[in-house]
Amino acid sequence: MPEAISTVFTPASGEEVPGLYLHIPFCKSRCAYCSFNSHACQSPPAAYLAALASQIRYWADQQWCRERVFATLFIGGGTPTIYGGDELAELVRLCLTSFRFTEDAEITVEGNPNTVTVEALTTLRRAGVNRLSLGVQAFSDRLLGALGRSHTKGEACAAIKAARKGGFTNINLDLMYGLPGQSATDWRESLDQALAFGPEHLACYELTIEEDTPFGRLVEKGALILPEEEEAMAMAALTHDLLAQAGLQRYEISNYAMPGKECRHNLNYWRNGSYLGLGAGAVSCLSGFRFGTVREPGEFTGLVQKGELPLAEGECLPLAARFRESVVMELRMLDGVSFARMQRRFGLTPPGYYGNILDELQAQGLIVVTQDSLRLTEAGLPVANQVLARLV
Ligand code: SF4
């Protein structure tokens, strides 16, 4: 490790336990809305996994990592399950033997429905994976086709059943609303179907249109018709009602969980904690020092093979900027921002720092400020982005 890096990573007192993220940047095909670092391929390269394994060994030996016990491992993508169960299980085992993890560590693998089998999932479960996140998006072949997803409703149902058979008792399903051609009735059908499987966690995101995607280009040309704002709001309201009735508590703007099944890996991101991200395009934040990894999988693999660190740009945010960033991220959670945690981490509290701005937002009914915390109200949640923009 270059000296400059090893001296930056000194232990930080009072820091919460970090998470480890591995990025698999391959998918069977590209969805029309996707802006993630993912590349279409039918047969993912073994060399990429070898490079990732080499990075796992390298980082596990660095002082910052040796001094810490990790609470979560998340293998995301892309589509991690595009690799076979044995290959992924080997990667998981390598992490578990190279880094120190808490006894009850949350270990998640993301997958897409047409890339999982009972055998592969059983292998992952035996390797220690205890949470599966499936990208279902919709239980409708018409809508899946419109999104350019590579799987069908039948494959989604089969994947969830395979996950239960493989021994998973903690499953997240990703679903999307506000899709082209989707009505509130369609959305209700997707939610009902998802709930029929009794998932422990649901992530329900409204479709966002990103530039430089097929959907982005269609929107520019006026050729993509999305649901009216009122209809999208109705879908959002339906989500909260149906999921609450099913016992899934909303704990973040778009995330719902059975009690105790909140995604701990993502909670750490929203608390602006430390995390090590390995793989093409992955980002790390170690005690406030944030840096990226080169995005292109071939470049990542090539640099590692040459014995070089595949790092991209890095920055160390000033304390006040980190404080603001943490407030904005924690406000995404329904629990809101704990003043005690902010005081402990930054020596600052939101009332002292923002002053009148909080009074104004409170007068508008968008936030609630108590003795020890700050959170969005029911009225503030749907316009969260506007509230957060005032606090950045
Ligand atoms: S499956 Fe996910 S990561 Fe892959 S192309 Fe579709 S949206 Fe992107």
Quick gist of this model?
By secondary structure, the chain is α/β, with parallel strands linked by helices. The protein has 17 helices and 17 strands. One of its GO terms (molecular function) is 4 iron, 4 sulfur cluster binding.
Describe the protein in words.
- Helices cover 42% and strands 22% of the residues.
- It is α/β, with parallel strands linked by helices and 392 residues long.
- It has two domains: 3-270, TIM Barrel, CATH 3.20.20; 319-391, Arc Repressor Mutant, subunit A (Orthogonal Bundle), CATH 1.10.10.920.
- The strands form four sheets. A nine-stranded mixed beta sheet has the order 9-10-8-7-6-5-4-1-11, with helices on both faces. A three-stranded antiparallel beta sheet has the order 12-13-14, with no helix packed on it. A three-stranded antiparallel beta sheet has the order 15-17-16.
- α5 links the parallel β5 (100-111) and β6 (131-137).
- The radius of gyration is 21 Å and the shape is globular.
- The two termini are 34 Å apart.
- Mean pLDDT is 94; it is low at 1-13.
- Iron/sulfur cluster binds at residues 27, 30-31, 34, 36, 38, 77-79, 112, 135.
Key features of this structure:
disordered N terminus; binds iron/sulfur cluster; single chain; Arc Repressor Mutant, subunit A; globular; TIM Barrel; three-stranded antiparallel beta sheet; alpha/beta; nine-stranded mixed beta sheet; 2 domains; 392 residues
